[in-house]
Amino acid sequence: MSPFSLRISDRVAAVQPSATLTISTKAKELAASGKNVIDMSAGEPDFNTPDFLIEAAYSAMKKGKTKYTAVAGTIDLRKAISAKFKNENGLDYPPEQISVANGAKHTLYNIFQAILNPGDEILVPTPDWVSYKEMAHLASAVPVDVPTSQADGFYLHREALEKALTPKTRALVINSPSNPTGALYSRKNLEEIADFAVKNNILVISDEIYEKLVYDGAEFVSIASLGPEIFERTITVNGLSKSHAMTGWRIGYAGGPKVLISAINTLQSHSTSNAVTFCQDASVAALNDTSDFVERCRSTFEKRRDLIHSLITAIPGITCVKPLGAFYVFPDVSSFYGKTIMGKPINNGLEFCAHLLDTVHVAAVPGSAFDSDAHLRLSYATSEENIREAIRRIAEFVKGA
Ligand SMILES: Cc1ncc(COP(=O)(O)O)c(C=O)c1O
């Protein structure tokens, strides 16, 4: 008998393992060996889920909400989402045009699977969140970069979109506020994007997961609210992870065209079925909540953003846009590439971050994970004390250049 040789499908084997893994594994090892590591790589709020949501889930379980629900989510949750879309975003999605999944990441995965055929192209503005391109690959589609730059606050220019457009372009994914840049698209920018999508008949996937984390009184706009033509060409994605400190609860959702929602539901009916039942009940409580929980988190993040931005931009050789949203800063540290820092030559972001971790024990995510090697991503979902100490250490590190 020949030995068994386990073969991974070409589709999955082609997926890139996360470039951030090396850093986070190393950070954990260092911390376990007793080093005082400051982790600035977190992609989730550092607040606990509020008690009233934990109680809502507990009470749902006690009431027997431990069974399957409709694949698309309970009618109560879809009604609450429908009301949220209407009241907060000016979007008219009835419950049958809403689908709930196990986190916004799952929602996005479902959408990519439902709309992309092999060889189809999807436009991805860069710097980009780590999963969009891999999700495209998993649908045998081709992600196409649409570059944006720090020089104008990561504005998504129409010319850049036109340049990336081909007869195979099927969709455009946008993420405002953005992970990793924290950039928020202005109404004017969204109008340009919408006009491009309508003229070229392209579907827009609008990832609005950081919607609630917007600063300086800036206006958050859902692209689908800009008119009936863009509304019918958009699927709007959101979730509870970032707004309600519910990352582990895994609730995400989308509102969109009926045919697409129905395709997603069919796909999901053969993969995960419904999102966790009692988490759906807690999500109804979150969406109907009138307390100041979300605002308290937002204003805490805003204070931290002011702090981290003022400290990081005071370091010679580092430039950084003041982000209007999310909980990341995305400084450009490329002026240090090609130099020797604390005894080691540094040629790129991965080497910068690895050496930063080794020497001063600060964990940051190299920008190459987001297709922008000049930058690194620092999350400020951590205490002011950690922020001050991390930036002090980064300043000390680059002083050695
Ligand atoms: C831009 C973006 N979209 C979607 C997600 C997925 O969020 P979740 O699956 O926790 O709802 C994340 C999480 O990090 C994100 O940063």
| Domains, number | 2
What class, by secondary structure content? alpha/beta
What's the overall geometry?
A: globular
Q: Please give the CATH class of the largest domain.
A: Alpha Beta
Q: How many distinct beta strands?
A: 14
CATH topology of the largest domain: Aspartate Aminotransferase, domain 2
CATH superfamily placement of the largest domain = Type I PLP-dependent aspartate aminotransferase-like (Major domain)
CATH architecture of the largest domain: 3-Layer(aba) Sandwich
End-to-end Cα distance: 60 Å
Q: What is the CA-atom radius of gyration, in angstroms?
A: 22 Å
Q: What count of helical segments does DSSP give?
A: 14
Query: Order of strands in the sheet with the most strands?
Result: 2-8-7-6-5-3-4
Identify the bound ligands. pyridoxal-5'-phosphate
Detail the poorly predicted runs. none
Average pLDDT number: 96
